[in-house]
Amino acid sequence: MRTENADRLYTYEDYLKIDDDNQYELIGGKLILVPAPKTIHQEITLAIASVIRDFVRRSNLGKVLIAPTDVLLSETEKPQPDILFISTKRLGIITDMNVQGAPDLVVKILSPSTGKYDKVEKSKMYYKHGVKEYWIVDPDHKTIEVFIPAEKNWNLFQSYDDEDTLASPLLTGLEIQLSDIFN
After folding, report:
1. Domain-embedded: residue 125
2. Under the GO molecular function aspect, what terms does this record hold (predicted)?
3. Burial of 172 (0-12, 13-18, 19+ CB in 10 A)
4. pTM of the predicted model as reported, rounded to 2 decimal places
5. How far apart, in whole angstroms, are the C-alpha atoms of residue 30 and residue 140?
6. Residue 16: CB partners within 8 Å, gap ≥ 6?
7. Looking at the 3D structure of the chain, how many domains does it have?
8. In 10 A of CB 58, how many CB atoms?
9. How far is CA 176 from the centre of its chain?
10. Domain range holding 73?
11. Cβ density class 124-159: b for 16+ within 10 Å, e for less
């Protein structure tokens, strides 16, 4: 993970003017270069997103999107979550270019180079903007931590390992066999 021109504060308008083939996130006004994910990251992303998407479609609950989808939280914060869910009543925040506002659910698959940043900085940002549920997926340890908002920060709802069945507090009835995700 590399920060471009660390002294400068960037806006979404600045981000739109970038003319190169790199992928960036805008976090707290800092332009963060996002390296290409490893294949295991993509396999896990696809597996989780497919299960969530199938459940959401069957129940007509909303929409599931994957990275690289720009999520415009403010003029200086534009992450690209690995997986995001937006409920039916909030589908109006999805435009042709981006998502304008906080998703209901954000799923982040950790990468070795960004793990600490994802657990601290992005976590704070998602909480501040009203994400209702945040999952942190650790491919190395084969775990998923599910967080829900509490009074001043996230509360760990449940930690799951590869032998468990994940149940989402937000998406009632969704169950994911983690052995299918990690093996």
Report:
1. yes
2. endonuclease activity
3. exposed
4. 0.92
5. 28
6. none
7. 1
8. 9
9. 17
10. 37-182
11. ebbbebebbbbbbbbbeebbbbbbbeeeeebeebee
> Please, are residues 164 and 155 in contact by the beta-carbon 8 Å criterion?
no
In a domain, 1, yes or no: no
18 contact partners, CB below 8 Å, separation of at least 6: 24, 31
Residues 75-134 pLDDT 10s: 999 999 999 999 999 999 999 999 999 999 999 999 887 777 788 889 999 999 999 999
Q: What is the DSSP letter of 180?
A: H
Q: Give the integer Cα–Cα distance in Å for 110 and 139.
A: 7
- Indicate which CATH number applies to the domain containing 49: 3.90.1570.10
Hey, what amino acid is at 87?
S
Per-residue pLDDT tens for 7-20?
789 999 999 999 99
Strand pairing category for 30-34 and 62-66: unpaired
For residues 48-75, give the mean pLDDT.
97
Backbone angles phi, psi at 137, to 5 degrees: -100, 125
